[in-house]
């Protein structure tokens, strides 16, 4: 299951990532990272289910062997034979589930290593791309500018207006504090 996912992700990254677009590569790696996390979780869940099935099967084997011993104490060869057949089936199933558990444990370990590697690749791809805008974002800003809007980093009027508003708010706060002090001193002085 995991190998097919990994091959699909590598193909997706190779086909949809332009060679010079680090943001697109980071986005593809992020999508692959999320999908891999889900796959690792699914593999872990399957391992837990196998371990639970193994525990149940081991208990059934112990019960079958105990019943075989009890049947041997009474002279009933038919019951002993049936108990041996059940014990043999449970022994085979237990052995198969133990092999399955070992294979799943190895698969989970491999998937976790791949997840760690993909995570480090994603972090490396993301460095230096956090502040850059995508081509779609740049196109949107150009559209806004052509409609009369301004980018925050180039909006001088907006910055001046914001500064004036902050100054007015500060003046109001100072006036309010001054009024408060005048009232306080006026009350204390009488």
Task: Look at the helices and sheets and give the structural class.
Answer: mainly alpha
Mean pLDDT: 81
Overall geometry comes to elongated
CATH topology of the largest domain: Helix Hairpins
Estimated radius of gyration: 35 Å
Q: For the record, give the distance between the C-alpha atoms at the N and C termini, rounded to a whole number.
A: 87 Å
Q: Tell me about the largest β-sheet.
A: none
Number of domains: 2
**Oligomeric state of the chains in view:** single chain
CATH architectural arrangement of the largest domain: Orthogonal Bundle
Annotation, overall tally of beta strands? 0
Q: Any low-confidence stretches, pLDDT <50, length ≥5?
A: none
What's the CATH C level of the largest domain?
Mainly Alpha
H/E series, N to C? HHHHH
Helix content: over 70%
Percent of residues in β-strands? under 5%
Number of helices, counting only DSSP H or I runs of 4 residues or more: 5
Supply database-style keywords.
Helix Hairpins, 190 residues, mainly alpha, 2 domains
Can you put this structure into words, describing what you see?
By secondary structure, the protein is mainly alpha-helical. It folds into 2 domains: 2-130, Helix Hairpins (Orthogonal Bundle), CATH 1.10.287; 155-189. It is 86% helix and 0% strand. It contains 5 helices and no strands. The chain has helices at 2-16, 22-73, 77-126, 135-146, 156-189. Helix 2 (22-73) runs antiparallel to helix 3. The relative contact order is 0.09.
């Amino acid at each position: 299951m995991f190998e097919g996912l990994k091959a699909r992700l590598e193909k997706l990254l190779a086909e949809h990532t332009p060679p010079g677009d680090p943001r697109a590569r980071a986005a593809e790696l992020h999508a692959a990272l999320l999908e891999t996390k889900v796959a690792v979780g699914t593999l872990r869940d399957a391992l837990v289910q196998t371990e639970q099935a193994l525990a149940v099967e081991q208990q059934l084997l112990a019960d079958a062997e105990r019943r075989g011993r009890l049947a041997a104490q009474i002279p009933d060869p038919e019951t002993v034979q049936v108990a041996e057949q059940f014990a043999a089936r449970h022994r085979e199933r237990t052995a198969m589930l133990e092999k399955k558990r070992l294979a799943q444990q190895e698969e989970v370990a491999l998937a976790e290593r791949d997840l760690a590697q993909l995570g480090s690749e994603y972090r490396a791809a993301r460095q230096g791309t956090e502040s850059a805008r995508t081509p779609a974002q740049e196109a949107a800003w150009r559209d806004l500018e052509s409609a009369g809007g301004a980018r925050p980093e180039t909006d001088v009027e907006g910055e001046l207006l914001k500064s004036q508003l902050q100054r007015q708010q500060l003046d109001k706060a100072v006036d309010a504090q001054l009024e408060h002090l005048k009232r306080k001193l006026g009350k204390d002085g009488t």
